Structures are given as structure tokens and as C-alpha cells.
């Protein structure tokens, strides 16, 4: 597949056409003066291992992995950073030598860095996370270690339950259930679903929200996401999409590969435009 491979870094996913990672990493390379050619690769759903093995055999040095392969990437790596072990999910791979591929997860540090930049997070904050997929697995440990309480609300209850039992040894984490509708108010609400379906206007009851509540959508697109539209509709002024998280998680992948943490402020501005 990668005969005469002309790139040594890449992002692998399916679908992948929408990915902004090549743009971000090529900007990082230019900025830091590090030689690093980065492309995106669409992987057939049943061929993740074959494609990744070929890439590393043909000169690949580092990879990002996006949906739906983060779990497979975790199993593919034969060395893991502590945070990847805890998340059981990998979004960054680095070739150490012919024997070892190191797996890391930079989604958590990416989200936390952006929440700090936006001034959306403080110790002891109460956070509602909507969703319980691979991305949430990556962000729970950093948020719990920061000292926040977390409640998980998910379409499939059993997936939320599984996450809570996996992470309750690291901090204060609970399933959000309807008995809390009228007695809880959150400092921060994060949308981590791949589809935010606004069934009715009170999808998130306003009793859970104050005028200071911040809203963060891990998703990003040029126009407002449905979640951001909903934030505007309820009159919130503290909201953001996930473009900053994307830039910061990429910066931390770059750090793992090249020992340099690139600045992200100007990249976030470029991506917003
Ligand atoms: N900004 C960034 O850097 C960044 C990084 C990582 C991910 N993301 C984004 O975050 C989102 C989640 O990623 P992921 O890797 O966690 O995906 P995932 O593993 O596929 O999980 C998807 C989540 O969305 C829920 N969901 C899917 N369709 C739904 C629907 N119709 N109604 C309600 N809930 C629904 C799923 O619930 P069930 O458990 O019920 O299936 C699950 O909790 C993606 O859109 C991804 O692009 C952004």
C-alpha cells in the first residue's frame, strides 16, 4: 500500500477527508523547522493492523489515529504511556525501533489545555459530560486528576456505567440519572457525542444550568454545531467548539515525536478562519 511512501507521519481513520490534522502538523513543522511530512490515510474498517504495519515498515515514524480505531490502536501498540494505559485508548503512535511502537493518548491533555485557555475550568468544578465513547475515555483521567467531579450522561446507559466503574478509582465520577434533574447545577457541560440530537428545546433541562455555566462541544465545523446553536438559544455567553482541543492534542503528539511543544494560539486562529 505504501510503496515509495513519501511521508513519515500520518493520521489514520475512516472517514478521514474532513481531518484538519495534516494542516495543523504541516504548520507545526514549518514553525519549528522540523522535517516532518504528514498525510491523511483512509483505512478500510477491517484493515487497521495491516495498514499500520505497512506504514511503519515503509519508513513511518509517527501516527495519529481517529475514530473508529482508537481501541484497535491501543491493542496494536506494544508499549504504552501511563495515560494511554489508563484510557485504554490510543490516538498517537511513535516508532521507537523495529521492535517497539509506543502508544499515547493526548486527547485528555488537549481538552484540559483548551479549557484552561478559555478559563472554563477550575478545581472542584462539577462537570456534566454527554457521551461515553472513546474520546471520553481519553479525557476522564486528566479531568478527575485536576480535581473536578464528573457526571456522565449517555444514550446507552450500560456504556456510561462501564466508564464509571473503570474510572471511579481515580476520582469523583458518577452516572447522571434523572433524579438529579432538579437538584444539580453544573459549572461546565461538555458534548462528547458524535451526534448531538436536539429532540426538544429542553434536551438539557435549564435547572442544570446557571448564567455562569460554560459549554464545550468536542465537535467542530465552520458553522455552529447543533450543540452551539442550542447554547446560543438558551442565551449562554460561555461556549466553545473543539477546535482548540484538536490543536492542543496535536501539539502534544508533536511533543511525543520531536520533543518540542509547538505554540498553538496562532494555529487556533488560523483554524477558526
Ligand atoms: N476536538 C477534538 O480534538 C476531538 C477529539 C476526539 C473526539 N472528538 C469528537 O468527539 C466526538 C466523539 O468521539 P468518540 O471518539 O468518543 O466517538 P465514539 O467512540 O464513536 O462515541 C460516540 C458517542 O456518541 C454517542 N452517540 C452517537 N450517536 C448518537 C446519537 N444519535 N444520539 C445520542 N448519542 C449518540 C454514543 O453513545 P452510545 O454509547 O449510546 O453509542 C457515544 O457516547 C466525535 O464527533 C469526535 O469527532 C473531537
Instruction: Give the helix/strand class.
Output: alpha/beta
Shape: globular
Count of DSSP H/I helices: 10
Computed CA radius of gyration, to the nearest angstrom = 19 Å
On the 0-100 scale, what is the average pLDDT?
93
Neighbour order of strands in the largest sheet: 2-1-3-5-6-4
- Could you name the CATH class of the largest domain? Alpha Beta
Number of DSSP strand runs: 12
Tell me the span between the first and last alpha carbons.
Answer: 34 Å
Q: Which stretches of 5+ consecutive residues score pLDDT under 50?
A: none
In this structure, how is the largest beta sheet organized?
A: 6 strands, mixed
What is the H/E string? Answer: EHEHEHEHEEHEHEHEEEHEHH
Q: Architecture of the largest domain, according to CATH?
A: 3-Layer(aba) Sandwich
Count of domain modules: 2
**What is the helical fraction, as a range of percent?**
25-40%
The small-molecule ligands in this entry are: NADP nicotinamide-adenine-dinucleotide phosphate
The CATH superfamily of the largest domain turns out to be: NAD(P)-binding Rossmann-like Domain
Which strand-content bin applies to the residues? 15-25%
Look up the CATH topology of the largest domain. Rossmann fold
EC number: 1.1.1.25
InterPro entries: Aminoacid_DH-like_N_sf, NAD(P)-bd_dom_sf, Shikimate_DH, Shikimate_DH-bd_N, Shikimate_DH_fam, Shikm_DH/Glu-tRNA_Rdtase
Family: Belongs to the shikimate dehydrogenase family.
Pfam family, one: Shikimate_dh_N
Amino acid at each position: 500500500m505504501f510503496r515509495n511512501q513519501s511521508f513519515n507521519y500520518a493520521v489514520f481513520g475512516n472517514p478521514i477527508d474532513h481531518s484538519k490534522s495534516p494542516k495543523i502538523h504541516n504548520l507545526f513543522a514549518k514553525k519549528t523547522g522540523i522535517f516532518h511530512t504528514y498525510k491523511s490515510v483512509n483505512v478500510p474498517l477491517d484493515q487497521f493492523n495491516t495498514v499500520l504495519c505497512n506504514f511503519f515498515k515503509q519508513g513511518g515514524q509517527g501516527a495519529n489515529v481517529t475514530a473508529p480505531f482508537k481501541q484497535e490502536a491501543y491493542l496494536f501498540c506494544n508499549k504504552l504511556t501511563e495515560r494511554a494505559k489508563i484510557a485504554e485508548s490510543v490516538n498517537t503512535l511513535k516508532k521507537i525501533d523495529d521492535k517497539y511502537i509506543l502508544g499515547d493518548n493526548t486527547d485528555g491533555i488537549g481538552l484540559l489545555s483548551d479549557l484552561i485557555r478559555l478559563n472554563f475550568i477550575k478545581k472542584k468544578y462539577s462537570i456534566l459530560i454527554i457521551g461515553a465513547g472513546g474520546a471520553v475515555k481519553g479525557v476522564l483521567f486528566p479531568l478527575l486528576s485536576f480535581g473536578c467531579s464528573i457526571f456522565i450522561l449517555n444514550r446507552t446507559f450500560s456504556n456510561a456505567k462501564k466508564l464509571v466503574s473503570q474510572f471511579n478509582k481515580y476520582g469523583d465520577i458518577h452516572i447522571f440519572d434523572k433524579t438529579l434533574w432538579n437538584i444539580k447545577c453544573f459549572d461546565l457541560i461538555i458534548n462528547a457525542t458524535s451526534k448531538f440530537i436536539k429532540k426538544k428545546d429542553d434536551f438539557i433541562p435549564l435547572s442544570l444550568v446557571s448564567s455562569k455555566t460554560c459549554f464545550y462541544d468536542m465537535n467542530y465545523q465552520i458553522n455552529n454545531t447543533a450543540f452551539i446553536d442550542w447554547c446560543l438559544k438558551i442565551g449562554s455567553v460561555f461556549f466553545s467548539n473543539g477546535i482548540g482541543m484538536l490543536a492542543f492534542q496535536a501539539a502534544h503528539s508533536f511533543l511525543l515525536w520531536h520533543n518540542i511543544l509547538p505554540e498553538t494560539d496562532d494555529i487556533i486562529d488560523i483554524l477558526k478562519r
